[in-house]
Design a protein that fits this description.
single chain, mainly alpha, elongated
Amino acid sequence: MDKLGIIAPVLKRGMVSMTANLSLEKNDSISICEKGYWAIMSIPKVPFVDLVAELADPNVAVRRVAIQKIMRRRKERAQAFADLLRLLHDTDSLVRRDTVKALNRLGDAHALPHLTPMLKDRAYRVRILTVRTLEKLGGKQATAPLAAALSDTARSVREETLEALVRLNGPQATPYVLTALADRAEPVRLKALDALCNLHGPQAMTFIQPLLADPSESVRAAALDALVRLNGVQALPSLLATLADPSDHVRNAAIRYLTQPGPAQAQIVPDLLALTTHSDRRIRIAAFTVLEHLHDPRSFPVLLQALHDEESAVRVSAVSTLGTLGDRRALASLLALCHDPVAQVRLRVAQVLGTFEDPQAVEPLLVLLRDPDQSVCTYAAWALETLNDPRAISALAASFSSSDDLRLRGTAIKALRTLVTQFPTTIARPEVLEQFLYAFGDSYVYIREDALKILRSPAHKDLLLKPLLDALTRPAAPLQIRVAALKVLEIAGYGNEPQMLDTLLALIEREEEYIPVRTKSIGLLAKNQDQRAVEPLLRLLSAPDLALREAASEALGLLGDSRALEPLRALLARTAPGYLSILVKGALAKIEAQTVG
């Protein structure tokens, strides 16, 4: 019996001794435990010969535990070498795997002849461990058997073998790496590619070039990356060829490398121009995408011709490239595309026209502002803002009012704000002011903020009073517009304007007027302490609408006129407890306090 078999009884006896005598002190208990510990430590080791004998036990678990125990006996384990070799033929793969591990740890090179056949073991995990062990024990002498393992049926074994051969042989492993480049498994080919780069650096280009035709997208992309990383400018021809790759991922990688800034990029412009007429649309698009980033004026004639390409994606790319070149000679051709049947083309035209800053673009952009595609309209609104032309103001206002698209509404109101700031008198146009009043009540905060910046701007104060009063008193104006006009009059500093106060007085007595307009007007009159409002307000204390009575009561309290005392007391006497009665009591208290004072 080994130590593990003795520990439990010893501990059990120690615990029984501790619990049998409840009067033991703490130190006595510790003493008992210490005795148990030293009893365990004094247990003699299992004889090594017994452990070796267990290697032949019919139980698999016993044989595996015996291997582990033997390997813990550092001074004795070498004696089990021959017995471990016999276990290489064990019927259980786990035993064979543990045996290979053990031989690896023993480090005895005499095991090499016995390990080499293990490269054909039916368990691939055993074969992987064998590769590692052969590398460790045999060094370069293991190259020949390891080379044979490059044809193993398991991919993981072939990967492990390739790495071992490269570590053992360095640059001399190139033939094996080239063999792995033709491996049927993609991960093996990728490892071989990495190995070539590490072994040969820029000189590996000859070996890597064929991988650009590899059936795997990942291998082709990795080969492209390696060529760029190792060869730089010399890789440009390969990058151009890769623009014809069937994979979007590989083509995009080539485009990314080709568009990186550098003096050598000018060399590839003629080749790119030749590709713009290729029969494959993907190649044409890729060529135009690269040209867009190179900004080479030599591409201008080809780009103009590409605006008529049958593929919309090519036309989009050509428009973008012309925009980056900024050549005004392209303006007429771009304007013709405002009626292109594809929305994405029209969108890109609108985007590019804003960069030209040419007045000729205004009218076409006004057409695009009415485009059925809301995204096109949004870019047209942005472009009109950049052109800074007052002709766009009315159209932008109409676009803001007619659209439900948030992006378009936000872009249109921002463009309106910019243009109205540049041309202040345009704020007085009814169609323009009305849209800012609508925006002032919008549910989206940034739209409200853009409107507020214009409506309360000091530069517009003298221009806005009459238009605001007109909007407020126009019977056909929607309620939202009239309420917004009142709010602007309140916040923009028109409190002492006689025209405003006269208008408010007239509004509170108009029985056919909207209740919200009348109540808001009452509040403004009281805020501005217009004593002329007292008599109309006293009459409203008998109004049939509760909101009017509440607003009138509160306003009379703010005005503080003693003429309101008796009417307010009469109202309080006939009013049931509630919000109105609270307002009336508050108004009475304010007036009485001022009267006493």
